[in-house]
Amino acid sequence: MAAAQSRWDRFFLTQPAATVRKRIFKGLFYLFFGFAVLGLPIPIIILFFEPSGERETVPDMLSYSLIGFGFYFAIALLFRRAAR
Question: How far apart are CA 66 and CA 36, in angstroms?
């Protein structure tokens, strides 16, 4: 009998995939999840390095960042569902 997995283990699909198809979907899940998470600090980096005259407003930048996060996170969740 296999040991019970935590919620984090189940979310991040830590058990080995049974088929090649599931391995591919698991890899795509990690890829798009990485895009979503790494894209979150981009507005903060832009605020520090872009000249103030060319900058968009902070609420606009944050809303674009959250929309991008939501888009890539939704795609990641679709691949996660296919990999289960």
Answer: 9
**Whole-angstrom distance, CA of residue 4 vs CA of residue 25:** 23
Q: What global pTM score does this model have?
A: 0.80
Q: What average pLDDT values come out for the chain (84 residues) when binned by 10 residues?
A: 77 86 92 92 79 71 87 95 90
Q: Rounded CA gap, 62 and 25, in Å?
A: 29
Q: According to the model, what pLDDT value does residue 63 have? A: 85
